[in-house]
């Protein structure tokens, strides 16, 4: 069954909100809202993003597997410098020997898009309910976030910064920017130094990147503590290799009240596979039912 979509303009930002056809505006069921973000060079209209959203609804609202106690909406919007927000496509490129495709500022450009997206998510948590439910007819009681590739990177950052996000599904994303981008720089023959990596930028990463936070702590100093996190990656991913994420994910502590599930799919590259979509949908289903994930 195809989800229904409405497009809202929230503070100048176009936002697509998907819901299940059986979800009625007159329902009093609480709502869980899941942001889902696209990858680099893509947009919120990308077919495989829409397919993933549909798969999540199919699994969440399908028969069997426990009683659903909440309704779901999925929220999608364009990353900065993508889709309707595109300003300069070349600034989305990486380093390249081809001058037409080379972007010397790749490291800074990609990370500022990710951190900007995290800020956009917090902005929408603040204001989206006022646009969706102007008379207070429905209530969003929990927020989650997922995304593929660039959207997966952004998910890790948003999870580390926004306490109202209780669930995260980073797909083929990486929580350790230094490990990811330094490997990419080395493969491209780019020095890990200015001007490619400005000193102020490295200082920012060393202070605020998820991998620099207290992610191993078993207390409130850990921004991931108590959250429900499903990590989906491809074992054969060459663009965002699992080795760049492994140390962080293996050491990540979410506590007794949180959930950490990790699936590194054999034979999968840098792709969101049908198996990953199914895993994401089942994880969301349990979130909606209130069952232990």
What value does the average pLDDT take? 94
Distance between the termini: 25 Å
Over the alpha carbons, how many angstroms does the gyration radius reach? Answer: 19 Å
Helical coverage, percent range: 25-40%
- Low-pLDDT runs: none
Strand content: 15-25%
Order of helices and strands: EEEHEHEHEHHEHEH
Main pleated-sheet profile: 8 strands, mixed
Spatial strand arrangement across the major sheet:
1-2-4-3-5-6-7-8
| General shape | globular
Strand elements, count? 8
Structural class: alpha/beta
Question: Can you count the helices?
Answer: 7
Characterization of this structure:
- With 293 residues, the protein is α/β, with parallel strands linked by helices.
- Helix content is 34%, strand content 19%.
- The protein is built from seven helices and eight strands.
- α1 crosses α7 and α2 packs across α3.
- It is globular.
Would you kindly provide a brief summary of this structure?
This protein is α/β, with parallel strands linked by helices and 293 residues long. Helix content is 34%, strand content 19%.
Kindly list the characteristics that best describe this protein.
8-stranded mixed sheet, alpha/beta, single chain, 293 residues
Please outline the helices and strands.
Layout: E1 4-10, E2 13-19, E3 31-37, H1 47-61, E4 71-76, H2 106-132, E5 140-148, H3 150-161, E6 165-171, H4 177-188, H5 199-208, E7 228-234, H6 243-251, E8 259-265, H7 274-289
Helix pairs in contact: 1-7, 2-3
């Amino acid at each position: 069954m195809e989800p229904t979509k409405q497009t809202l303009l929230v503070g100048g930002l176009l936002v697509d909100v998907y819901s299940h056809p059986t979800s009625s505006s007159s329902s009093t069921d609480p709502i869980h809202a899941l942001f889902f973000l696209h990858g680099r060079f893509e947009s919120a209209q990308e077919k495989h993003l829409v397919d993933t959203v549909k798969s999540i609804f199919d699994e969440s609202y399908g028969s069997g597997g426990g009683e659903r106690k909440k309704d779901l909406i999925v929220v999608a919007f364009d990353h900065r410098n993508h889709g309707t927000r595109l300003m300069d496509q070349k600034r989305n490129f990486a380093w390249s020997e081809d001058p037409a495709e080379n972007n010397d500022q790749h490291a800074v450009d990609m990370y500022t898009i990710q951190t900007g997206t995290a800020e956009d998510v917090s902005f929408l948590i603040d204001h989206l309910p006022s646009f969706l439910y102007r008379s207070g007819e429905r209530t969003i009681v929990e927020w989650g976030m997922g995304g593929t590739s660039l959207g997966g990177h952004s998910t890790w950052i948003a999870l580390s910064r926004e306490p109202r996000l209780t669930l995260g599904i980073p797909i083929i994303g990486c929580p350790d920017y230094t490990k990811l981008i330094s490997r990419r720089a080395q493969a491209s023959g780019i020095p890990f130094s200015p001007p490619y990596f400005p000193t102020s930028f490295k200082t920012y990463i060393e202070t605020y990147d998820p991998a620099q936070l207290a992610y191993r702590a078993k207390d409130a100093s850990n921004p991931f503590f108590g959250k429900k996190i499903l990590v989906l990656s491809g074992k054969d991913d060459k663009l965002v290799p699992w080795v760049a994420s492994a140390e962080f994910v293996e050491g990540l502590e979410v506590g007794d009240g949180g959930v950490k599930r990790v699936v590194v799919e054999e034979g999968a590259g840098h792709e969101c596979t049908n198996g990953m979509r199914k895993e994401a949908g089942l994880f969301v289903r349990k979130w909606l039912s209130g069952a232990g994930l």
